[in-house]
Write a structure and sequence with these properties.
Blueprint (H helix, E strand, L loop, with lengths): L1 E6 L13 H11 L4 E6 L2 E3 L8 H4 L7 E4 L2 E4 L2 E3 L9 H19 L4 E4 L2 H15 L3 E5 L2 H4 L8 H10 L2 E4 L2 H9 L7 E3 L14 H7 L6 E5 L8 H8 L6 E5 L5 H10 L6 E5 L3 H10 L2 E4 L8 H8 L4 E3 L5 H4 L6 E3 L4 H13 L4 H6 L6 H18 L1
Parallel strand pairs: 1-2, 1-7, 2-5, 3-6, 7-8, 8-9, 9-10, 11-12, 11-14, 12-13, 14-15, 15-16
Antiparallel strand pairs: 4-5
């Protein structure tokens, strides 16, 4: 029996039901195994008063500190968060806050390993906690934790320290593994761990009927991701000017929403651009399957779940050469990899609209991605670390 304590600051709760869904799905898959026992510690950062009264943080007041979430025991301790200026202190703060809780957990649940689901702050906090409890830990890199926190003053050293002291590391793509080694991490300690796909949720549908249900007549472009500069939605809006008759739906929310809405209005695209915000997973799947093209020209990625889910839905993708893009776009049916340039994006969209690949052929490009394979690989990875410890 493998006993796992998962540490994840990216984990959904009642206030954020879609937050960290990829972490949740991986964790549920591992916990479902008969040879695994698992509990989750999902710390929530709350700033000092009066910032704690802001609606963004006040919504956590009703989130229980311990609950059974989809069959898993999840602990949600609060730690003191100092927005913007306190990032370098967060791992130590989390470790100090959750250490008494984990000591109590360990009295009845003698976990073998701590599985940190993000390099920063999770991995750096896990490093401190693992030493206290005499267990090994693993850290999974997903993209931003390496590309941003791995290079930021105040966190970069902690990211490297967490890597050096871990029993093993995971990366969501081979490209991200290369980025990790470029920072100074040992390539031999890093295993590539692809995400899975919920094939019951993401699958091809009658595209014309799906578009009609969304009240769309004509080409449909969809993006999925946080509305932040790095994801490149502004480039998609600019490209839309050169795709006659197309509608674009931007699934997600974030600080750039108002800027993007204003950009669309200035370009006369207000009627062609929809921003429904964050949607439940089933609604995300409905929009992606209805799309003719899913576009996400990110500046950086690990291996975006949105890419894989679109392909599983039979929807080709237009993406930038970021992260694991080359690992997905290994045949023409998958779509196109383009420069982060509106004209190049528009040309790629129009090429797909003019000669759309068969949905089944698009879906076949991600046959190697499954949650079963994801769970099996994670179990083997964590078990090997425990055996070596």
């Amino acid at each position: 029996m493998l006993r796992v304590l998962t540490l994840a600051t990216l984990f959904p709760d009642a206030a954020r039901p879609t937050f960290g869904g990829f972490v949740e799905r991986q964790t549920l898959g591992l916990a479902a195994r008969d040879d695994v026992e698992l509990e989750v510690v999902a710390p929530i950062g709350i700033p000092p008063w009066p910032l704690s009264r802001h609606p963004h943080y006040r919504r956590f007041a009703d989130v229980p500190e311990r609950e059974v979430w989809k069959g898993i025991v999840v602990h949600r301790p609060r730690f003191r968060l100092i927005p913007k200026i306190g990032g370098s202190l967060t791992p130590a703060t989390i470790a100090k806050t959750v250490r008494p809780l984990i000591a109590t957990i360990r009295e009845r649940f003698a976990f073998d390993i701590i599985d940190a689901e993000f390099f920063y702050p999770d991995g750096a906090a896990a490093m401190r906690l693992a030493g206290t409890f005499g267990v090994p830990y693993s850290v999974k890199a997903r993209g931003t934790d390496i590309h941003f926190w791995g290079k930021r003053r105040g966190s970069a050293r902690q990211v490297l320290a967490a890597a050096r002291n871990a029993g093993g590391l995971l990366a969501v793509s081979a490209a991200l593994k290369n980025d990790m080694t470029a920072l100074g991490m040992d390539a031999g300690s890093i295993a590539v761990h692809y995400t899975g796909i919920d094939r019951e949720r993401f699958h091809p549908v009658d595209r014309a009927a799906a578009k009609a249900a969304l009240d769309i007549d004509g080409p449909l472009v969809v993006t999925v991701g946080a509305l932040i500069e790095r994801k490149g939605q502004a480039l998609v809006i600019d490209a839309l000017s050169n795709v006659p008759g197309a509608t674009a739906i931007f699934v997600g929310d974030g600080p750039d929403r108002a800027v993007l809405e204003n950009r669309a209005r200035k370009l006369g695209l207000g009627e062609c651009v929809r921003m429904p915000g964050n949607l439940p997973h089933d609604e995300v799947a409905r929009h992606v399957a209805a799309a003719d093209v899913m576009v996400l020209p990110s500046a950086s990625e690990g291996l975006a779940n949105a890419w894989v889910e679109a392909l599983a839905s039979g929807t080709p993708i237009v993406i930038s050469d970021a992260g694991g893009a080359r690992e997905l776009l290994d045949r023409p049916e998958a779509g196109a990899m383009v420069p982060r340039d509106p004209k190049a994006i528009a040309d790629a969209i129009k090429a797909i609209l003019a000669d759309p690949p068969a949905q089944d052929a698009v879906r076949a490009t991600v046959d190697r991605f499954s949650w079963e394979a994801n769970s099996e690989a994670l179990f083997d990875h964590l078990s090997a670390i425990v055996e070596r410890h």
